[in-house]
Specification:
Length: 403
């Protein structure tokens, strides 16, 4: 729409300024004289409704929507976003409801990158909007626009945002998810989330479960002592790994590593992140994880010893006779897990608040704990450098003794 400068200054700019600031009275005054401006498109291809969404004024949005035709709400800005998509990004459910009432098609209109409003809401961490849009989209069914790839990418964003309650609903509504080619990404994302098992996340999962399923599911939830995130992991893994050939499972667990030679990326990402709960669930479904090695020839237990990850190491007491294989296994340097216990930890697990005698005591207790699972002959065996485990311990802890 070609307009002169006077018209711009007198009507258009004041209208967009009113939209951005949520000044409803000023907008009413302008639109009363120039009604067509309600669907005016500026140089950024934005309508006043696009601008109004950023003001977070639900009343203002309601006023503009009431003045517009349903198809006007489908107009996109330069980034390919409808005003509805911007509301999804902002997480304003009130605005979204107003627009959907005018045009029910809006939740199924993607942006220029083919991302649905539901995806955008999950990407930006807007839980209430995700819940609303999931129901509004009939749980991602119908309309021919909900491909499995689209569902998978939304599932992944829900996991990244810790929306495990919504993720559980998706898995229950769509048992085909995640697809084989995306299962590795799902597992890798879960592997990087040890904080999801903390109390706050568990409480959040309980809240989501109440909202999504009702009180009876929460009763079941507590009877089984199964926090939402663990239930999510079990639901996403059970029947997805065990039904597949070993080669396929190994490929899934290798994931998309930045280093082409790095094996079983999912497993060792979880280990580096000290995600013991994730590893416990993975071992429960696929015990071969126990004997997987990284590039240094180390198992998850070797790494846990080096980093002083007690919870992961404690899993060794639950693996039966395989414990003896781990206890005698040597890495590329010829070191067994007791050699690693004698070395300084990869990271300081004690902080600066412990005095040297207490650090030494902790280290000695850790060494003895690991020693208890190692056969006597392996306690005195030398590594490639020609040193026994205790010689390594003595050498690496002299500074603590001197303090």
């Amino acid at each position: 729409m070609a307009v002169d400068r006077v018209y711009q200054l007198q009507f258009i700019r004041p209208l967009y300024r009113a939209a951005v600031t949520g000044d409803l009275e000023a907008a009413r005054s302008i639109i009363a004289r120039q009604g067509d401006l309600v669907r005016y498109i500026n140089e950024n291809m934005e309508t006043p409704l696009h601008a109004a969404v950023t003001s977070n004024s639900t009343w203002f949005v309601g006023y503009l929507v009431n003045m517009m035709n349903p198809e006007d709400l489908e107009l996109r800005n330069k980034e390919g976003n409808t005003a509805f998509s911007l509301a999804a990004i902002a997480g304003n459910v009130g605005m979204a409801k107003i627009m959907v009432e005018k045009n029910p098609r809006l939740p199924t209109i993607p942006d220029h990158d083919d991302k649905m409003p539901l995806y955008l809401a999950a990407f930006h961490g807007k839980h209430d909007m995700v819940t609303y849009l999931y129901d509004q989209n009939r749980r991602m069914t119908g309309d021919g626009c909900w491909t499995n790839d689209r569902k998978d990418e939304i599932l992944l964003k829900c996991i990244e945002a810790d929306f495990f309650g919504v993720g559980l609903r998706m898995l229950n509504d769509h048992p085909e998810l995640p697809q084989d080619n995306n299962l590795g990404d799902v597992l890798q994302t879960l592997a990087q989330k040890p904080e999801a098992f903390h109390c706050r996340s568990i409480q959040s999962s309980v809240k989501e479960t109440v909202e999504s399923y009702g009180i009876w599911c929460v009763f079941f939830f507590f009877i089984n002592l199964l926090p939402g995130v663990l239930l999510f992991i079990r639901t996403s893994i059970q029947g997805k790994l065990m039904e597949k050939p070993k080669n396929t499972i190994d490929d899934i667990l290798k994931g998309h590593s930045l280093c082409g030679t790095y094996p079983y990326h999912v497993v060792f990402v979880a280990t580096r992140m000290n995600n013991s709960n994730f590893l416990a669930e993975l071992i429960r479904e696929y015990p071969d994880v126990i004997l997987m090695n990284n590039d240094d020839g180390q198992s998850i237990f070797h790494i846990s010893v080096s980093h002083r990850y007690h919870d992961i190491f404690n899993l060794i007491y639950e693996i039966g006779s395989m414990k003896h294989l781990i206890a005698t296994m040597k890495d590329q340097q010829g070191s067994n897990i007791l050699h690693l216990a004698g070395m300084n930890p990869e990271k300081n697990p004690y902080g600066d608040f412990l005095a040297a005698p207490y650090k030494l005591q902790r280290e000695l207790l850790w060494y003895k704990k690991v020693c208890a699972v190692v056969p006597p002959p392996c306690r005195i065996v030398k590594n490639a450098a020609g040193k026994t485990p205790y010689e390594i311990f003595d050498e690496n802890h002299k500074d603590l003794v001197s303090q």
